[in-house]
Design goal:
The protein starts with a helix and ends in a 15-residue tail after the last helix. The chain has about 350 residues and is of the alpha/beta class. The strands form 2 sheets. A 7-stranded parallel β-sheet has the order 8-7-6-9-10-11-12, with helices on both faces. A 5-stranded parallel β-sheet has the order 2-1-3-4-5. Helix 7 crosses helix 10. It is elongated, with a radius of gyration of 23 Å. About 40% of the residues lie in helices and about 15% in strands. It has 2 domains: about 150 residues, Rossmann fold; about 180 residues, Rossmann fold, CATH 3.40.50. Helix 14 links the parallel strand 10 and strand 11. One of its GO terms (cellular component) is cytosol. Pfam families: 2-Hacid_dh, 2-Hacid_dh_C. This is Glyoxylate reductase. Belongs to the D-isomer specific 2-hydroxyacid dehydrogenase family. Keywords: Oxidoreductase.
Length: about 350
């Protein structure tokens, strides 16, 4: 009987879990019935690379969270080169996967999955909050209230500059993907005059939801609010730079809940200080959590510490979906949500 149990255990695939589980303990407990789950305890990248040759040398699947980067560093070409030959997939807990190099993984025939769609509602809700807050100068008013300036100045709204309503304004959406379309749907009831968008290619009309496809230059020149929803990769790093900001309409509002790295923050601060960009709503910044305090302390910036998916319901669903990806691998050999860069590859 003991031998049979040992044989049964040894035939189970091994899952290496990087990062903590907040709410999906039941899902992981179910997974442990069909897989051996080991939790990474390597304190830093150097030790993790060593452990990949030792105690983690026979893992079949790896799951990872965004914060686990503090233990392993980026899943770049160097780290991928150290992965055991047994690894078949990396399942990332997040829609954005800029911490992981999907092309490097392809060189070792390793699948990469992410968590699309489940993050859309929470991220879009956050985007709408930031957009309306930045449009109405709510951050400046909030700061004045906290500093006791209302009692000092004895003026309406504590002397906060008069802002704008949505009516008559054009929203330009850069990246009308799933999250961009969700944002568009949520913004429509507020009475904006027009929605335009720019993607690398125009979407089918039934996915545009009334938004007009325009060139990027036209979007930058005509939009009162610019909504940023593009992934971070080698092509989009500092996509919004001095050149793009100079083409924006005077007094534009910029909102970003995608990734901080798509914005050149040095140029961004310059245009925010000059007033060319009137205000900004940001949930993401470069070098998180070591963010540029000059940027987030500007009175015309409404900033959050990456809270787009920071809700119980969304976190739980995301964690459970990672487990579903692993189950799919065990049962079919394929992840559910293969990232776009790998979809042409025959695994």
């Amino acid at each position: 009987m003991l031998l049979r149990r040992l044989m049964s255990t040894s035939t189970k695939p091994t899952v290496l879990r990087l990062g903590q589980v907040a709410y999906a303990q039941e899902a992981w407990a179910e997974l442990e019935k069909i897989a051996n789950v080991i939790v990474n305890d390597s304190p830093n990248r150097e030790q993790f690379l060593q452990d990949l040759k030792g105690k983690y040398s026979n893992v079949d699947y790896i799951t990872r969270t965004f914060p686990s980067v503090t233990q392993t560093g980026l899943f770049d070409a160097e780290l991928v080169s150290h992965l055991p030959e047994s690894v078949k997939a990396v399942c990332h807990n997040g829609a954005g996967y800029d911490q992981v190099d999907p092309h490097a993984l392809l060189t070792k025939n390793i699948q990469l999955s992410n968590v699309p769609e489940l993050v859309d509602n929470a991220t879009a809700d956050t985007h709408v909050f930031l957009l309306l807050g930045a449009l109405r100068n709510f951050n400046a008013g909030h700061e004045a209230l906290l500093k006791g300036e209302w009692a000092q100045v004895r003026k309406a709204a504590a002397g906060t500059p008069v802002a704008n309503d949505p009516e008559g304004k054009t929203v330009g959406i850069v990246g009308l993907g799933a999250i961009g379309r969700n944002i568009l749907s949520k913004l429509k009831p507020f009475g904006f005059k027009k929605f335009v968008y720019h993607n690398r290619n125009r979407l089918p009309e039934d996915q545009e939801n009334g938004a007009e496809y325009v060139s990027l230059d036209e979007l930058l020149a005509t939009s009162d609010i610019i909504s940023i929803n593009i992934p971070l990769n080698k092509h989009t790093t500092h996509f919004f730079n001095e050149e793009k900001f100079s083409k924006m309409k005077q007094g534009v509002v910029v909102v970003n809940t995608a990734r901080g790295g798509v914005i050149d923050e040095t140029a961004f601060i310059k245009y925010l200080k000059s007033g060319h960009i009137r205000s900004a709503g940001l949930d993401v910044m470069q070098n998180e959590p070591d963010v540029n305090l000059e940027l987030v302390n500007l009175p015309n910036v409404l900033a959050l510490p990456h809270m787009g998916t920071h809700s119980f319901e969304t976190i739980k669903k995301m964690e459970e979906f990672v487990v579903e990806n692993v189950k799919s691998l065990i049962e079919t050999g394929k992840v559910i949500s293969l990232v776009p860069e790998q979809k042409a590859h025959d695994f």
